[in-house]
Amino acid sequence: MLLFTHNDSDLTFGCSYKVMFSFFTSHLDKFRQSGELYSSDSEAKVNYFFVRDPYERVKSLFADKLRASVDRGHIQLCQQVMIEHFGFSNVEELKTISFDSFCAELPYFYKSDAHFYPQECGYNSRNIEQVIKMESNFSHLNELGLSGVDFQSKNHSSPSDIKGTLHYSPDSKLIIRTLYAYDFKLFEYAA
């Protein structure tokens, strides 16, 4: 879990990669990254923790890291993990992987980079005031009075035209349901 604290109010927001991360990093004039939690033993206080349907999160990850961002001129750590896993020599080769193949191989490297971690990593219900699902309307956060921050402008960083073409086969759905079983249960998403 990545933590971002609002500069003026000291409210702390938690998220995972592919769950509001781009929103917070695009507002670094208003928020500061205040830590990372990957152990539920932490006592860090989190006012709001954003989660996303695991199926949609994996689609978003694939659409962004294996399609849209491949041509951006730099290799991200999660892409390097996949390049090495698949035995590729460059980032462009990630475009050759199908969505089903990505899902089939994910169990072998999902613990290698935080982009792939389950959202429950670092989750401690004692320290989190409110869990907010990305699929919900969270305009009530605008009532917090955080100047210059509009939560309704949330940034889904993967192109929807790519995500819309991705469909789970029965096998790939089973893999995601198994890998992220606790996320489905803990955050009450339909598996």
Task: Give an overview in words.
With 191 residues, this protein is an alpha/beta fold. It is 28% helix and 14% strand. It is built from seven helices and five strands. A five-stranded mixed sheet has the order 3-1-2-4-5. Helix 4 runs parallel beside helix 6. The two termini are 22 Å apart.
Tally of helical runs = 7
Structural class: alpha/beta
Oligomer, anyone?
single chain
Instruction: Return the average pLDDT rounded to an integer.
Output: 88
What best-fitting shape do the alpha-carbon axes yield? globular
Count of individual beta strands:
5
Q: Which segments are poorly predicted (pLDDT under 50) over 5 or more consecutive residues?
A: none
User: Roughly how much helix do the residues carry, as a percent range?
Assistant: 25-40%
Through-space gap between termini: 22 Å
The order of strands across the largest sheet is: 3-1-2-4-5
**H/E series, N to C?**
EEHEEHHHEHHH
Described by strand count, sense and barrel closure, the largest sheet is: 5 strands, mixed
